[in-house]
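ok so for the tutorial part 2 we go from a plain amino acid sequence to predicted structure tokens. step 1 is just haveing the sequence, like this:
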Amino acid sequence: MSDSTRVRRPRRPTLRSAIEAAEKAGKKVKSATVENGKVTLVFANGETTTDDWDMHLKELDCGKS
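step 2 — the prediction. this is what the tokens look like for a chain of 65 residues:
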């Protein structure tokens, strides 16, 4: 199979990288789940996020470019 005919899967952040990025940003993670490829984090202060962690990882220089 040549490179041009390969189907590229969309990259998804790992649970571990999302938690590490949140803690590096100073957020304490209370719980985390992965559902349908989306990472949902619940923080100690009650906030919840389902943001696209690719953006956050790129800002923190933790993810792949």
